[in-house]
Amino acid sequence: MSVIERTAQAVPTAPAERRVRLGGVTRESVLTLLGAAAGSLALDWVLYERVLPLSGAFGFLVVWYLLFLAMTWGLGRLQWDARTVRERLVQTVVGSSGVLVVALIVDQIVYVAIRGSHAASHSNFFTQSMETTATLSPITSGGALNAVVGSLEQLGLATLFAVPLGIAAAVFMSEVGGRLARPVRTVVEAMTALPSIVAGLFILGVVILSLGVQKCGFAASLALTVMMMPIVTRAAEVVIRLVPGTLREASYALGGSQWRTVLNVVLPTARPGLVTAVVLGMARGVGETSPVLLTSGFTSGMNADPFSDHQVSLPLYIWNYVRYPAPDMVARGFAAALTLMAMVLVLFVTARLIGGRRPGDLSRRQRRRLQREMAAS
């Protein structure tokens, strides 16, 4: 036997590597979660009903969740190594958090739909105002048409004011820069966290009390503009920064100036993201109550002129009528809340459909037109 063979026999062979599979759903993991959930529920019931003097549904659920995590870890240690157990436990925490958020949203939607379906099921709710409706009037009288019209007009004016200012500020911070870019960004970030009632107080003090403008839909739209503009600015700045620098360099190489590059290259490329920024700002403004409460006033009749007299919106309509002791009035308030939720849902779906593409990606219509042009040439 040679020296090399003896050396090879003396060196111990390394154990075969075992592939660790992280992620995915297996039968063992599902059964472990089900067993941990059932065992923690039984133990929680014993503690609450037989051992400890505890009560309350919230505490019961919190203790159940903590026991569930503890049992998940314990059952996992009986089957897997420590690294796999940690990975499964983190997956459980993240997944349960997502389920909790979805459950809360569904619970809110179902609750509002149940409470407001009694009024929303009648067509008069969307075709009449509350001008001739008293507190004890039947549910077939009155509606929220004046609030829907007021919300649409106020939101439209606020969008008309906030979008140009927000996109211009975003272009300044991302394209122009300079010494003023940092202070402007700081102010925008501070305005993002601004309480909505402060915006209403600002318009109330400056526009209504100082300038003598009466409470109307126009004043409410100015308050909504203060709330929407930082949202539009922050989102637009992020989208503009995602535009590839090579497009700007190509424009400069062809002799384009900075403003022409921004107008003809940067903004068209970032158009889907800018639309998303605008719709997100609109969704923020459509549900604000406190600024509208301080600046628009309240009226039960129809007022389609936002520049004259008081004008009600959906958030203000909800705030006013859910406080009534009459059940039909409360039902009208919840029906208005359901209408407002539908409007916000439409805005977010629109943002998802229009702004789902990355900056520079072509839509289907643009790709078809490009193919036709290439085929014709």
UniProtKB/TrEMBL annotation:
Keywords: Cell membrane, Membrane, Phosphate transport, Transmembrane, Transmembrane helix, Transport
UniProt cross-references to SUPFAM superfamilies, sorted A to Z: MetI-like
Main location as per UniProt: membrane
Cell location: Cell membrane
Membrane topology classification: Multi-pass membrane protein
InterPro entries per record: MetI-like, MetI-like_sf, Phosphate_PstA, Phosphate_transprt_permease
UniProt signal peptide: none
Annotated transmembrane regions: 29-48, 54-76, 88-114, 155-174, 186-212, 218-240, 261-283, 334-355
ABC transmembrane type-1 domain: residues covered: 148-351
PANTHER family assigned: PHOSPHATE TRANSPORT SYSTEM PERMEASE PROTEIN PSTA
Family (UniProt): Belongs to the binding-protein-dependent transport system permease family. CysTW subfamily.
Purpose of the protein: Part of the binding-protein-dependent transport system for phosphate; probably responsible for the translocation of the substrate across the membrane.
Name of the protein: Phosphate transport system permease protein PstA
Species name: Streptacidiphilus cavernicola
Taxonomic classification: Bacteria, Bacillati, Actinomycetota, Actinomycetes, Kitasatosporales
